[in-house]
Give the backbone structure.
Amino acid sequence: MWVSFTVFLLLSTSALAVSLDGFNEQELSMRQSIMQALNPFVDERKKLGTAPLITFEELYARLTPEQIAFLEEFRAVDPKTLAGSSRRLPLPAPADRFVRLDRQVVLRDGKPVLLDAQYLPEQAFSAYQRMMAAMERDLGRRLLVESGYRSPAYQLYLFLFYMPKHQQSVRETNRHVALPGCSEHGSPSHQAIDFITPEGINGEDRPEEFEELQEYGWLHARAHEFGFFLSYPRGGDSAFEPWHWHWELTPGGERSTFGTIRGTLQARRSERIRDYERLVS
Ligand SMILES: [Zn+2]
């Protein structure tokens, strides 16, 4: 009888969902063992500039069945049970193709610094290029991509990575980092871009200055023409993020821009092929 009771206990424990308001001892050591197994792999991919494209298969290949089961429970967390406006977004499709941006230079403390390689889904990249050409015509200025696509698997890793900074609580961490599957940065049909100016004005370090930029005013006036929208306006459910805009395939835009998208991509390809390396996810 005791044996069956113990088996019952074990089964019910393993079937329990992830604790949302702070990891218990078991979950803490599970998280730690997962990070130990994944850190060297992710660090290597960061060096190669390909961390944003990491897949679940690549993560899981380095983990035990128990660790994988834990991460699957984690992925099953319903965003609606957490505060804020988290929601699931369409996941990337196997056919999605990404453009790599790895020649972006910004000033930091007056010195030119190369940004980490960024990725955008092909269509969002084309729309971004067209929008920047228009901005350049109007203002003589451009915005760069500080953060583009991040795969849901990389988002899962980042979420776990940042948990110690937020009391090991899923609910608390979710106020600062989106759950995997809930980030516009990981959803090609709603692709988000965090913009940065060539002078280094961005959301992370200089958010108030970003709102004052003439580029920001321009985005308000014209970004919708290219299918870009401000995701977190002032006074919404989430904190105001003037630098974070997302692209979506708009019904009008789909017909009127598709030919131009193709043309722009082909022109870019032949013109500056060395600047951008096309990758298949
Ligand atoms: Zn963002």
Residues 5-15, 254-281 have pLDDT under 50 and may be disordered. Residues 147, 185, 192, 194, 244 surround zinc ion (CB under 6 Å). The beta strands are 97-101, 105-108, 111-114, 118-121, 144-147, 192-196, 228-230, 244-247, 278-280.
